[in-house]
Design goal:
By secondary structure, the protein is an alpha/beta fold. The chain has two domains: 210 residues, Rossmann fold; 160 residues, Rossmann fold. The chain has 16 helices and 16 strands. The chain starts with a strand and ends with a helix.
Length: 388
């Protein structure tokens, strides 16, 4: 099967973590016998004079490249920041259709794989109409929970869901949310993320702490610094955890506010902002932490949950997304209210009786990229009728 993967998030040389899980999934699929994958990663750039803003030159500089053996095309489309979300699917389709038609003429595609529900899904719907081939869409969390509530976007999401040959959700909880929006539940298959079990595994915690210059109880939070991830609650909880330190990875719009809050509460010396951490460096961080805390207001199935558990690190998480689908035993951690005191109580409880790392990692033993790709290949064959 020849798959055209359409993804607005995909790594590049100057942003290697951006959409890393799409890349890992796509690469794993490309290794399945009789599957070939071409990636189109549309890049939204702002119109003049917004094109002079910080970061725009980096976007314009992104070029086509071979990424871990995958051919990745990066056509540009005009994206108006903040207010232009409803226009993006049509803008993407217009910008990339000539390239898609050319590639399809040279070697026809069997199916279009949209890796996020919005804007990728409605854009794939337009390409499907033009090429006369089926398309599928994968939902990952914010593409449903955020974009599904935006004016001009929800109707496009529902329309694309109706016309897609099949739909994927990263958790059973997200599938339920999609059905509640009016999507046909019979079309939705749960497709869990993959995991590199050879890299994400328990290590000597004391040795990893020493190597990273960490001491005492360490709480780690892996995620973009944006309001939805609720890192502010972890900083507030730190005031009730006298000897603990908090390590935050990621960048985002909330960083200045979070730094200000830590200073205001007198805990800034116990909060380390690490910025964007290369994905290959995360196993050591997870293994060094006593707890990985992520108390987001919404998630699909956070990859940070899966990777932390694989490293033998228990998690403190809010009751969102597929968290209950991951936590198979008490060693996995605690599910808490989005409240600083509840977070602090859960942290103290785990630190007082830390679980065995092997018992923690057992919760995600079934996760692998090979299994992820096997299920994805089976799904694509089924929805396209391509049973060769």
């Amino acid at each position: 099967m020849r798959i055209l993967t359409l993804s607005t998030l995909f790594p590049a040389s100057n942003r290697p973590n951006f959409g890393i899980f799409v890349e890992r999934q796509t690469h794993a699929l490309s290794e399945v016998p009789d599957f070939a994958v071409t990636v189109i990663n549309p890049i939204g750039t702002a119109p003049w004079p917004l094109s002079n803003a910080s970061g725009q030159s980096d976007l314009k500089a992104l070029e086509n490249e071979s990424w871990r053996g995958l051919e990745v095309y990066r056509p540009k489309f005009i994206a108006i920041p903040v207010i232009g979300g409803a226009r993006n699917p049509a803008a993407i389709a217009r910008a990339i259709l000539p390239l898609v038609q050319q590639l399809h003429r040279e070697t026809p595609f069997d199916l279009i794989d949209a890796e996020f529900f919005y804007p990728d899904g409605p854009a794939a719907m337009r390409l499907s109409d033009a090429l006369g081939i089926p398309f599928t869409i994968k939902a990952r969390g914010a593409d449903i929970h955020y974009w599904g509530q935006q004016r001009g976007c929800r109707s496009q999401i529902i329309d694309a869901a109706d016309k897609a040959a099949g739909l994927l959700a990263v958790s059973g909880a997200l599938k339920s949310d999609m059905a509640a929006m009016g999507m046909n539940a019979d079309k939705i298959r749960v497709h869990y993320t993959g995991l590199d079990q050879g890299r994400f595994l328990p290590r000597d915690r004391a040795a990893e702490k020493a190597r990273l210059g960490l001491t005492g109880p360490v709480i780690l939070c892996v995620g973009a610094l944006v309001p939805r991830k609720n890192q502010r609650l972890l900083i507030e909880a730190l005031t009730a955890l006298a000897n603990a330190s908090l390590v935050l990875t990621g960048t985002g719009e909330s960083e200045a506010a979070l730094r200000g809050l830590a200073k205001q509460l007198g805990v800034s010396e116990r909060v380390r902002f690490m910025g964007a951490v290369p994905h290959d460096d995360l196993p050591a961080l997870f293994a060094a932490a006593d707890i990985m805390a992520l108390v987001s207001s919404s998630e699909g199935l956070a990859n940070a949950w899966v990777e932390a558990l694989a490293c033998g690190t228990p998690i403190v998480a809010s009751d969102v997304g597929g968290i209950r689908e991951l936590m198979k035993n008490d060693a996995a951690g605690r599910i808490v209210a989005q409240d600083p005191q509840a977070i602090a109580d859960a942290v103290r409880s785990i630190l007082a009786n830390p679980p065995q790392p092997a018992d923690v990692s057992a919760n995600v033993r079934a996760f692998s990229w090979k299994e992820n790709a096997r299920q994805l290949a089976d799904f694509f064959r089924t929805v396209s009728g391509h049973q060769g």
